Amino acid sequence: MTHFSARSLLKNALSGHKDWPAQWPESQPKAEYDVVIVGAGGHGLGAAYYLASQHGITNVAVIDKGWLGGGNTGRNTTIIRSNYLYDESARLYDHALDLWDNLSQELNYNVMYSRRGVMMLAHSVHDEQSFQRHIHSNRLNGVDNCWLTPAEAKAFCPPLDITARRRFPVVGAALQRRAGTARHDAVAWGYARGAAARGVDIIQNCPVTAIRRGPDGAVTGVETAKGFIRAKKVAVSAAGSTSVVLQSAGLRMPLESYPLQALVSEPVKPCFPCVVMSNTVHAYISQSDKGELVIGSGTDQYVSYSQRGGLPLIEHTVAAICEVFPMFRRMRMLRKWGGIVDVTPDRSPILGKLPVKGLYVNCGWGTGGFKATPGAGHLLAWTVAKDEPHPINAPFTLERFTTGRLIDEAAAAAVAH
Ligand SMILES: Cc1cc2nc3c(=O)[nH]c(=O)nc-3n(C[C@H](O)[C@H](O)[C@H](O)COP(=O)(O)OP(=O)(O)OC[C@H]3O[C@@H](n4cnc5c(N)ncnc54)[C@H](O)[C@@H]3O)c2cc1C
User: What's the pTM value of the predicted model, to 2 decimals?
Assistant: First the structure.
């Protein structure tokens, strides 16, 4: 594996960056693996990386129907935060934040994690009470979150208009300073590179068409476009397609799949220093390192597997941004796109064993799983390797939908769902 260093960068700069070796090989499937992971998004690739690096399990294939990182990982707006309400969630998302801190060094790959702060605007007494509740709960769990007055919010984000004449006045904000953004593609590429270097096969353009079970009910492998692959352990990390994939194993998942869209403006000089979300007006915004304003809001209203979404939602999103930031009214929008997100009834993920021997799932991250990428990968790898959940993901079972021990994060899911 190429080691990135100042020396290797300089050397390759002299040859116009044309001589870098491939970062991972184009693998073809073997007949059998110890573990097959369905879905080469950040979560699946992360799980493969940690299986190899922390559990010594390297006979692993990560299989994707498209190109790696081409699902929601490569389509999201890259917001990273951990200010969720419940204790279980605080542990889960803060675990991911801890891993983000050192991820570039761990992977020797710059994932451009930027702790620029995520600020959630309050526009009403109700917003303020809800955010204060989150702040208190977060602090009890050691999660960084604080309340800002309108003037403090403006000082943190100068483009903010805090004049009282606005239709949605800013009455304050909740700020998580440790939160921020990262470069989504780099996260997938970094994990892919690290996993492949440890012997993991990454098989692209190969849909998994079914999960096969033996007479005892246990998993025996997966049917794919490139033939049957045997495996005693199969982990499904297929985001919006999870329920379709698991249906073939005879499981009906409590998931709904919705299109979620985002858009970017033309690039402009740095003018927006943090991430701002307004749940009430219903949009969020940040600025990428390329200068584009990155904008998003909620899911479409109807379930669908179309990876694009409807125009009315984009119109609503842009209107909401102009409401909060009138200075952007004359910006031109460059492009929009969509992904398919998998939403659970309590807006928390399902991460653990399934009631089929050898079958594991990581799904239900809905509109907010990018922030969890290192944590989800790490915990899925642990669960698969040890055949039991890590204490952090132990509450995030499928069974909670029958026992009633829900982890209701609908409010903390913020703008999106
Ligand atoms: C527009 C948008 C904005 C978002 N913004 C944010 C944000 O700001 N912050 C945040 O935390 N989260 C955000 N999210 C959510 C986040 O992107 C996802 O929760 C996260 O990326 C999920 O990662 P993953 O690896 O599980 O899924 P994915 O990256 O979607 O990977 C799943 C993979 O499974 C593959 N697959 C599916 N079916 C099959 C099959 N049958 N066979 C083989 N492979 C299959 C897919 O091709 C895909 O590559 C956003 C999502 C979208 C769409």
Answer: 0.97
